Amino acid sequence: MGQRTRKTTDTPHRRIRLGISGCLLGEKVRYDGADKRDGYITGTLARFFELVPVCPEVAIGLGVPRPPIRLVGSSTAPHAVGIVNPDLDVTDKLAAYGRRTARQLDDISGYILKSKSPSCGMERVKVYTRRGGLAGSGRGIYAAALMSASPLLPVEEEGHLGDPDLRENFLERVFAYRRWQEMTTSGLTAARLIEFHTTHKLTLMAHNVDAYRRLGRLVAGANRRTAKDLSARYIRGFMQALAQPTTPKRHANVLMHAMGYLKKQLDAENKAELLELIDAYRLGQAPRIVPLTLLRHYFRRFPDPYVACQVYLNPGPEEIKLYG
Asked: Last residue of a domain, which of 145, 162, 179?
């Protein structure tokens, strides 16, 4: 039986676009005229993605250098006001620019924000009282508006990219969301929706088995008339599932599930070796790439049409290079 191909991953001519806080690329757009250039972003991610820089504070006319701003008021609905001049309130301008950016950059597949920024911070941004005391923490005004307007968009702060698990989770969501964008651009049909779900079954199982089953039931009812309505519910649940951190135990379960498709092809010695490597990964004694590489080797020797279409075991070349 021939191997299935994944049409949704074919991106030979255009790099995936990511929005990014301009200061992280070395643009001197900070309030003090400095930058916050990030070596991993400029040295690694820039090789694989088209990075689209944005500085909302400059975009709304605050200039460089400029008086600094901070969040003031309640954690849930703070205002961005001047530190030196509290009468300067740019809350509405930053929020409006966040919504406008979401509309204009509707083809990006992810966004990297500058942490702790009163405009771009994704979480844990300091919020002060009117008198200058610490009131709590919240989200930057621009970031909040952007994320509200584009709730499916994978978003992360540069500080989190230093954590291997958080970095891999963000990149996994970016690639998955790009596949969804390409699929919908080429024309959404019930068949394509079902295919998308099929190719991501192992990926979903690694994050949330219940979501995998729930989304499977959803697409099972798709037809020509209902595909569009179901797709909105599907991708919302899909991206929410991928945002949930996975664990070595869940990955090990998926690896063993995949191994089940080789039960007739492998002898006892090869099975024992593969099980030993999966268990070593689960216990933290080996990286996941070790059993994953051996599984890929066996499936090249013994192709299976279901496994051949799985993103989890057969990611694109950029995915392999970035997180293997």
From this structure: 162
Paired strand residues for 21: 54
With 60 as the cut, is the pLDDT of residue 11 above it?
A: no
Euclidean distance between the first and final Cα of the chain, in Å? Answer: 27
Cα(181)–Cα(107) distance, rounded to whole angstroms?
Answer: 8
pTM: 0.92
**Runs of H (alpha helix) within 31-90:** 39-40, 46-48, 56-59
Claim to verify: residue 14 and residue 116 sit in the same structural domain: yes
- Do 54 and 157 share a domain, yes or no? yes
Is the pLDDT confidence value at 235 over 50?
A: yes
Instruction: Note the pLDDT tens digit of each residue in 69-113.
Output: 999 999 999 999 999 999 999 999 999 999 999 999 999 999 999
Give 88-135 as a 3 state SS string. CECHHHHHHHHHHHHHHCCCCCCEEECCCCCCCCCCCEEEECCCCCEE
- DSSP three-state, residue 110: coil
Which structure tokens are listed for 274? 């593969």
pLDDT in tens, 117-152: 999 999 999 999 998 899 999 999 999 999 999 999
Q: Per-residue confidence at 4, pLDDT binned at 50, 70, 90?
A: very low
The answer to whether residue 171 is domain-embedded is no
Number of domains in the chain: 2
Contact present, 318 and 15 (Cβ < 8 Å): no
Give me the pLDDT at residue 13, please: 52
Determine the structural domain holding residue 139 and report its residue range: 8-162
Last residue of a domain, one of 113, 129, 162: 162
Are both 131 and 200 inside the same structural domain? Answer: no
